Amino acid sequence: MTALRRLGTAVDGNFQGPAAGGMVPPSPRLLAPNGSAPRSPAASRREEAAAASGGGGPGLAPLRPTPAKPPLGSGKIQKRAGGKPRKRAPLWQAALFVSVAIHAGLFVLHPYVNSAAPPHRHHHPQEPQACLTHPEAAGSDGGRRRATQEKAWAAGAPSTGKPAVTPESVINLDHGDPTMFEEFWRGTGAAAEIVIPGWQTMSYFSDVGNVCWFLEPGLDHEVRRLHRLVGNAAVDGYHVLVGTGSTQLFMAALYALSPPAAAPMSVVSTAPYYSSYPAVTDFLQSGLFRWAGDASSFTGDTYIELVCSPNNPDGTIREAVLSSASGVAVHDLAYYWPQYTAITKRADHDIMLFTVSKSTGHAGTRIGWALVKDRDVARKMTKFIELNTIGVSKDSQLRAATVLRAVSDAYELPAAGEEHRRLFDYGRRKMAERWSMLREAAAASGIFSLPDETSGYCNFTKDMASTNPAFAWLRCDREDVEDCASFLRGHKILTRSGSQFGADPRYVRVSMLDRDDAYDIFVKRLASLK
Amino acid sequence: MTALRRLGTAVDGNFQGPAAGGMVPPSPRLLAPNGSAPRSPAASRREEAAAASGGGGPGLAPLRPTPAKPPLGSGKIQKRAGGKPRKRAPLWQAALFVSVAIHAGLFVLHPYVNSAAPPHRHHHPQEPQACLTHPEAAGSDGGRRRATQEKAWAAGAPSTGKPAVTPESVINLDHGDPTMFEEFWRGTGAAAEIVIPGWQTMSYFSDVGNVCWFLEPGLDHEVRRLHRLVGNAAVDGYHVLVGTGSTQLFMAALYALSPPAAAPMSVVSTAPYYSSYPAVTDFLQSGLFRWAGDASSFTGDTYIELVCSPNNPDGTIREAVLSSASGVAVHDLAYYWPQYTAITKRADHDIMLFTVSKSTGHAGTRIGWALVKDRDVARKMTKFIELNTIGVSKDSQLRAATVLRAVSDAYELPAAGEEHRRLFDYGRRKMAERWSMLREAAAASGIFSLPDETSGYCNFTKDMASTNPAFAWLRCDREDVEDCASFLRGHKILTRSGSQFGADPRYVRVSMLDRDDAYDIFVKRLASLK
């Protein structure tokens, strides 16, 4: 139980241990879209190579290979690197349910809000060494699975995300990992597939005439097109900036909006606020900006107010609560899409942030965008990204453009418009189903409460639509439970504590976007708690 | 000439203006690898769409479209967004040679080394509004070209980097944009092509059992394999970490190596040092670390020493110059590859940084990697990237893995090993040619000097190899020229001033990695200067 208690620090991010052993889906690299569509010569070559290696290569690799330098010329299908210091837990440990936790920064930051103590000092010692794993990994079957997966990786197979789950697994809904959407994209076939030849987009530069000189013009085009289609944000008169996820754009906005001053700019947001806001603001102890806590209790005139709407974690629709000539707002509209809420108006704030992670579910692609009115702010945000990462992956920009194009095409082009290809239809149906299941489970349990359901007229779908947030803001009403996250963790459900959002630890945030198998187990398990 | 003088601030990064009008290569999206190889259904669809749009779509779009919201349902091939606030320079301005400049941070930071003045205050006002353009863009031809390019972008074509050049163009060799390598990769066909279906790698997570939980295992595998092949760095006993370019990993290392302390950690490097080091260290005014200038004059005991070898800008082979129990070194080995220098030993430092930008030329992919011995340091670096960008583009990781695999395959697999597919053979031949041309040009001119040629026994190629740095560290010997960058700019050659590297402004850094056309014009122009 010590291991389980350590999960109290669970937040975003990192996973340690032999976790992947629990899951061996067929290598997606070896499956074509839809399971059967044609593939490129490169993909075919890889299949052949993987097949050819079956006899003596990585299939025979030990789970924890010993340091041994493979000879030159041993070919494309080499073993997973020998001597790699992965330090995976030995198999006997894998019989334990031990899970993760790393955004230690997030966890430990909350107590230091408005404190002079540098949060950085508290990050590192807090990082637990736990791991997420599965009972299946304990036996020889787990070993075989791991070996099979390593073989697939050595053959160039891409990763598949978190391990698959069984009814006995720890269910990790701590992160908003949007794998729910995989099912949808498996149904879109070649429309969302991208092919990148070896010589393409090798330059640092994408559009030398643009303020955001590393923005792929095709992505700029599709971002504007999609916003016009959905009607959720104004684009005329705005600059489009691309970032490595919206997190980088959030930092870029802080940098751009923090003028030279003796004291760092105060960064605030109304509680409950997204747990990353304080962590990302403070982790480098910048002299330019500093987390200053709950906007509703802030008393200064000069500030950056972060307005997340629909809000992470509780799904509420928000407006800025502060108003001052020397204050500015950054609107995080990551969840302002029809699958989550009614589109009631075309947002036209000075800085608006979006991301494919939540709009289409492509978190691994790490593409966010900002719509920015002011040219100078746009230029300074661009400068931040230039200094931080010298631009943003063009491969992912091109992929994001392709994915957004597929979304718009399904609504705008009759030939592409079969209903199963309409992302927002799929997403809204799916989210409504999940919320219905969750409300039933909470009712069956009797010890949990959820925010009331709200609805509004959606200008995109032209009908009344209920709100189906991407996170459930769940409250445990049992009087003897003061820490809901710990309580749920005791039942092998990982969530994020309300305390990390500047709120009551009787609340937790639960991701509603995981795969069906994990979500179904979660709901059943929740219903059984009394 | 005012515009030209403003170019004095030219450093890395940004380009403004209608530049792209000067170049209209065929859309690479519409060319298969090798110009004829097979393509995916998605690619074919895009070709058809692009062809179908020829009559009435973006081909008719005005160069500077007026604000007009396209109707819904206008389909996939829409015009470049109406009302977009690009503020491109009007065409008459395009007749001027006006170039770029943005890493203003880099430019202005140098004077503040070891100064208490926060460098941030000086970034923004210094950013020039200049643009890089071409005389060709001034006329109607330029307008047509821009319109054609916008049409291609609207159809999903990827960008093509900096505009093509003519003998009259401003030649921009300020950045190390490695487009020289495009030629090589056009010759590798499907071996380096990647196909990504819409549903792939959507999760935040790549390998939940790894310290670097967002690292694609296939990239880890290929990184280790390539280092074993080349023999330039030890990998056994090292963690592989991935970053959004090595710049992000550099910041991650500063974060990981700066312990809690009353004063920020001092960051130093021997002059001439890479101009980004001070800029990236100081732009957020972190309380954790602070640029402290030239390592050779540093007197403290506690520091992070940045060791770039071969060195950017001057190509010298370097070792750490400081030694102290409480000092640490970060080795930037971006250029330690056989095309640039003899591989004389297997580097085995505690932290070593690499990037595909310089090893294979894929700068737009934004993938760097670190080899890190210590597990705690690896974990803290991972934490930085988690807080900064929540991981690294999986699409680019998969592409980088594919590209590295193609490099290794060409040497290790007989079938793939035709000589034209051997990257390092190509790179060394090309670099040797260019250095020979440059030395001839400098000799013909009579007013420039270059570092002496050196050579060494290369363990990879098993022969003596001369050093062919990726940058030329060029000195102008004319007594009346105190600022070589300004002098060359007067002759429409953009370079980076020695002053930005902590060195004499009689020196400039010149990129040796641009495309043939630009390089050839540069060399001819240089030879003509007296």
UniProtKB/TrEMBL annotation, chains A, B:
<feature type="domain" description="Alliinase C-terminal">
    <location>
        <begin position="171"/>
        <end position="529"/>
    </location>
</feature>
<dbReference type="GO" id="GO:0008483">
    <property type="term" value="F:transaminase activity"/>
</dbReference>
<feature type="compositionally biased region" description="Basic residues">
    <location>
        <begin position="77"/>
        <end position="86"/>
    </location>
</feature>
<dbReference type="InterPro" id="IPR006948">
    <property type="entry name" value="Alliinase_C"/>
</dbReference>
<dbReference type="InterPro" id="IPR050478">
    <property type="entry name" value="Ethylene_sulfur-biosynth"/>
</dbReference>
<feature type="region of interest" description="Disordered">
    <location>
        <begin position="118"/>
        <end position="169"/>
    </location>
</feature>
<dbReference type="Pfam" id="PF04864">
    <property type="entry name" value="Alliinase_C"/>
</dbReference>
<dbReference type="GO" id="GO:0016846">
    <property type="term" value="F:carbon-sulfur lyase activity"/>
</dbReference>
<dbReference type="InterPro" id="IPR015421">
    <property type="entry name" value="PyrdxlP-dep_Trfase_major"/>
</dbReference>
<dbReference type="InterPro" id="IPR015424">
    <property type="entry name" value="PyrdxlP-dep_Trfase"/>
</dbReference>
<feature type="region of interest" description="Disordered">
    <location>
        <begin position="1"/>
        <end position="86"/>
    </location>
</feature>
<dbReference type="GO" id="GO:0006520">
    <property type="term" value="P:amino acid metabolic process"/>
</dbReference>
<protein>
    <recommendedName>
        <fullName>Alliinase C-terminal domain-containing protein</fullName>
    </recommendedName>
</protein>
<keyword id="KW-0663">Pyridoxal phosphate</keyword>
<feature type="compositionally biased region" description="Low complexity">
    <location>
        <begin position="32"/>
        <end position="43"/>
    </location>
</feature>
<comment type="similarity">
    <text>Belongs to the alliinase family.</text>
</comment>
<dbReference type="InterPro" id="IPR015422">
    <property type="entry name" value="PyrdxlP-dep_Trfase_small"/>
</dbReference>
<dbReference type="InterPro" id="IPR037029">
    <property type="entry name" value="Alliinase_N_sf"/>
</dbReference>
